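Agenda item 2: FE2/S2 (inorganic) cluster complex prediction
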Amino acid sequence: MIVCVCHNVSDRAIRAAMDAGATSLSEIRAQLNVGACCGKCLPSAKAIVSECSEDAMPRFTAVRRELVAA
Ligand code: FES
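Presented output:
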């Protein structure tokens, strides 16, 4: 699904950027230009970033436990 029509950015592109290490909407904006024109996409982009952050937290916690135990 296209999230940012002005810059042709999909939810997949945002999720891929988050998987590659982006951690905030600011980073997504800098990488993909989301919201750099009309800004109407920002609420949707923010929701996807939040969703990805919530999805990543259990993985992060599991990795952290492994590192602490090592
Ligand atoms: S829809 Fe994203 S800047 Fe216009």
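Discussion summary: The mean pLDDT is 90.
Owner for follow-up: CH.
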